[in-house]
Every structure is written in structure tokens, then in C-alpha cells.
Amino acid sequence: MKxxxxxxxxxxxxxxxxxxxxxxxxxxxxxxxxxxMRFTKENVALFEAQKAELVxxxxxxxxxxxxxxxxxxxxxxxxxxxxGDTGQLYGSVSSRDIARALKxxxxxxxxxxxxxxxxxxxxxxxxxxxxxxxxDVIVDVKVYVAQTQDEIDALVAGxxxxxxxKKVEEVAEEAPAAEKAEATETEExxxxxxx
Length: 195
Fold this sequence. Notes:
The chain contains 6 helices and 9 strands; from the N terminus they run ββαβααββαββββαα. The chain is of the alpha+beta class. It has 2 domains: 2-67, Ribosomal protein L9, N-terminal domain (Ribosomal Protein L9, domain 1); 70-169, Ribosomal Protein L9, domain 2 (Roll). The strands form 3 sheets. Strands 4-9-8-6 form a 4-stranded mixed β-sheet, with helices on both faces. Strand 8 and strand 9 form a beta hairpin. The longest helix is centred in the N-terminal third of the chain and has 27 residues, at 41-67.
């Protein structure tokens, strides 16, 4: 189906472009949400009459999105979830959860479709994602997922979470512990040889 875009849509086109899309996409998303209009002679004339207003609305939406960039960048997206011994979550953290957290933490309303997560987060750790406040305004954010606030603090500090008998340790601290164990074994062997 041929449509005229009334909004800029990422990976599709800019305002005023005529594009060919699948019929279902046009009928179920673009047309009901007023993001496009069917390509007809009447609609082309109507679009030309409204073009200045649509471009002005687009610029205002972009400015509004740019005013929220700092709030989103500074938001602390900390998700506390239950997880197993291997760090796998019981459930997942979805784009809906991140959108809800942004509303609570930064008081910024975004829809889950604006969270460019890809696939849901299913393990403990620090994850990079993007928030599309506007097609031209995309903000990088970091999402921290852990079982406790102490683990989140460790992730924020750049530490690595290990699972099993040890919970939260810095990787650099593990090496000296191994060296101490080797030194102790060496001392024990030298004492045995001396006897």
C-alpha cells in the first residue's frame, strides 16, 4: 500500500515522503495513529495544505524530546530481581519495565516501543540500551539488574558479580587470594622439606 508519511518514522522515511508499506502495517499502525495517510490525489493536496503545520509540530516534538535528554541520561535504572545461583533471572526485564522505571525515577513518560532493548534481559549484570525520545533524539542509558542493592552498587562501581559460593567480589581481588593460597602451600612444602 502506498502512503504519505505525516511523521518522521525511523527506517521508513521523513515527513511528506511517499513510501510503499505492507497493507497490515498501514491499516493497523500508520493510519490509525495518524502517522500516514493513503496516497490519493485528494490526500496529496490535503497534505500540501497541512505540510507547514506538520513540520512545525515535528520540530516542537523534537524540542520537547531534547529537553528531556539530561533527565534520561542521569536516571539511575536499577532493577532488583530474583535470580538463580547462576545469575539467570526468574523472569526477565522487558522494555515495559524500563519505561516504567524511567517514569518513576526521572518522571519521563516513554512508551515501551521507545525503549530500544532488542530482547528482554534475562540475567544479572549491566546492560546498554537506547531510549528513542523522538526519531531524531536517541539517548544511551545503562540498566543495572541484580538481586540486591549491594550488588547493584558493586555493578555501578565497575565490579563483576560472580555466582556460586562467592556472591560479589571484584575480579582483581580474586587474583591476590589465589597468590596467597599458593604462597601458603609453598611455605608448607618448604617446612616439610626442612623437617
